[in-house]
TrEMBL record:
This is High-affinity branched-chain amino acid ABC transporter substrate-binding protein. CDD domains: PBP1_ABC_LIVBP-like. Residues 1-27 form the signal peptide. InterPro entries: Leu-bd, Leu_Ile_Val-bd, Peripla_BP_I. It comes from the Bacteria. Keywords: Amino-acid transport, Signal, Transport. Belongs to the leucine-binding protein family. Pfam families: Peripla_BP_6. Residues 30-367 form the Leucine-binding protein domain.
């Protein structure tokens, strides 16, 4: 009995010691959160961000981590839904995580940003482009590694004015923060240039039949359509316009630049125009990083993979510089210039990039894209 009791005591003690050692090892990690849509219709955008963050973390950890500590990533789902944004934010805060890459979508980001800022969580979004996220908010902890819609919109409008040269334009949007915001920016730029914007109208995201708006487009005699929103609706607009004999060129922001649009639109996707971040994967300086993506069968040339990689780099480099303290990291980001996979980046007082390069691409029915010449 005594020997058995002693053996049990030794085993229990070793178990406690093992747990303590494991706890110490975990405490040596630096916790990052990644808030992305893992459910809902926009999960592919979450996949893009996940590929970028995962590759960056693997590279950083393999090189010794941050000041000898490894990055540990927790994934939180917000479904790209504004109502879920605060729920996801509270999960990050309650987990005592001080650094976050995301949110992916502007609506969810806008809804969650006050919580992150009040609780001192450093947020770097690689994909939320709405100016309303940062404009006039006086946030200290919210940053981007992508440009704003009021940079992207003028790029799209410039192409429409100088290259497409349509007679009549319709500007549509999905009535949401991101889509309506960028559509408004494009409309305003076109009107400044005296381009005839014959229609500015919202559609309901999630609908399956857009024949009514297509009939309006035909009646208005438009020859170019700009749509502010995401790929599910753009795919349907393209397909149903083709089915109804409406021959117009369509253009959208980076939210439509998703391979899934091909499955929805079919052959009608050929020639779709899209504004996207420059393809940083073609930069020779990124060859090793591109190989790291490819070795894991990940795509480095999508809309958000490398902006997500850069977001992870920015946080990691700031922690290296000032230590594992979110307040100091935020202070550092506001004044630093950091070399990243998307080039040297710096931020203004609002947490927006001081510059960002949006380019125009032409989408093809095989899922590839090429720079748009006209």
């Amino acid at each position: 009995m005594r020997a058995s009791f002693r053996l049990k005591t030794v085993v229990a003690t070793l178990g406690l010691l093992g747990a303590a050692v494991a706890g110490q090892a975990q405490a040596q990690n630096i916790k990052f959160a990644m808030v992305i849509p893992t459910t809902g219709p926009l999960t592919q955008y979450g996949d893009m961000v996940k590929e970028g963050v995962s590759t960056a973390v693997e590279q950083i950890n393999a090189a010794g981590g941050i000041n000898g500590k490894k990055i540990e990533v927790t994934t939180v789902d917000d479904a790209c839904e504004p109502k879920q944004g605060p729920v996801a934010a509270n999960r990050v805060v309650n987990a005592k995580i001080g650094y976050m890459i995301g949110p992916v979508c502007s609506g969810a980001a806008i809804a969650a940003a006050p919580i992150y800022d009040n609780e001192g969580v450093v947020v770097v979004t690689p994909s939320a482009t709405s100016p309303a996220l940062t404009e006039g908010k006086n946030f200290h902890y919210i940053f981007r590694t992508i440009g704003r819609d009021d940079q992207q919109g003028p790029s799209a409008a410039k192409f429409i004015i100088e290259k497409a040269k349509p007679n009549k334009v319709a500007v549509l949007h999905d009535k949401q923060s991101y889509g309506q915001g960028i559509a408004s920016s494009v409309r305003d730029e076109l009107q400044k240039a005296k381009v005839n914007v014959a229609l500015f109208e919202g559609i309901n995201a999630g609908d399956s039949d857009y024949s009514a708006i297509i009939t309006k487009l035909k009646s208005a005699g438009v020859d170019f359509v700009y749509y502010g929103g995401y790929h599910p609706e753009m795919g349907l607009l393209l397909r149903q316009a083709s089915e109804q004999g409406l021959k117009v060129r369509m253009m959208g922001p980076e939210g439509v630049g998703n391979p899934e649009v091909n499955a929805i639109a079919g052959n009608a996707v050929e020639g779709m125009l899209v504004t996207l971040p420059a393809d940083f994967s073609t930069n020779p300086k990124n060859a090793a990083i591109v190989k790291a993506f490819q070795d894991k069968k990940r795509n480095p040339s999508g809309a958000f993979q490398l902006t997500a990689y850069a977001a992870t780099q920015a946080i990691a480099e700031s922690i290296k510089a000032v230590g594992d303290d979110p307040k100091k990291v935020a202070d550092h980001l506001h004044k630093a210039k950091i070399d990243t996979v998307i080039g040297p980046v710096s931020w203004n007082k609002q947490g927006d990039l001081t510059s960002f390069d949006f380019q125009i691409f032409q989408w093809h029915k095989d899922g590839s894209k090429t720079p748009a010449a006209k």
